[in-house]
Design brief:
The protein is an alpha/beta fold. The chain has six helices and five strands; from the N terminus they run E-H-E-H-H-E-H-E-H-H-E. It has a five-stranded parallel beta sheet, sandwiched between helices. The longest helix has 22 residues. It comes from Neptunomonas antarctica. InterPro entries: Rossmann-like_a/b/a_fold, Universal_stress_UspA, UspA.
Length: 143
């Protein structure tokens, strides 16, 4: 039914995406869909990142994150499933929405944290922004 399925992965909490990956794998195995996994890290233009890391160290860190995403994928993917893996820098919600548009993703499956109203106001919700701004179906899994 869905040709391209995206599961955003937060490598700080990779187990949080476990249920999303199980549903995505079902879609991949039953319908031959493409699976995309991506993670988003703060970019070097982020003042916090630039204040504490040199550009060289930041590039090294991004490469390490890409390796961790690949290791995670090898750990959780069944034999014969080869997802497209991507690491991007920037705002998570904006980056995910841009990826959806550029790769013509049909379905996003992602976990949604249950946060207090204050946390939601202060931190925002990546999953809510993705669901609101995406031009495809978004399945949010509540914890």
């Amino acid at each position: 039914m869905f040709k391209k399925v995206l599961v955003p992965i937060d490598l700080n909490e990779p187990d949080f995406a476990e249920q999303a990956l199980l549903l995505a794998l079902r879609e991949v195995q039953e319908n031959g869909s493409e699976l995309h996994m991506l993670t988003v890290v703060p970019g070097f233009t982020n003042s916090f990142v630039a204040a504490y890391f040199s550009e060289k160290d930041h590039i090294k860190a991004v490469k390490e994150i890409a390796r961790k995403l690949q290791d995670y994928s090898h750990k959780v993917m069944p034999e014969g499933v080869h997802p497209t893996l991507r690491v991007y820098e920037g705002s998570p919600a904006e980056t995910i929405v841009n990826y959806i548009a550029s790769k013509e993703i049909n379905l996003v499956i992602m976990p949604a944290h249950h946060r207090s109203k204050i946390d939601e106001f202060l931190l925002g919700s990546v999953s809510a922004r993705v669901a609101e701004r995406s031009k495809c179906s978004v399945l949010l899994l509540k914890d």
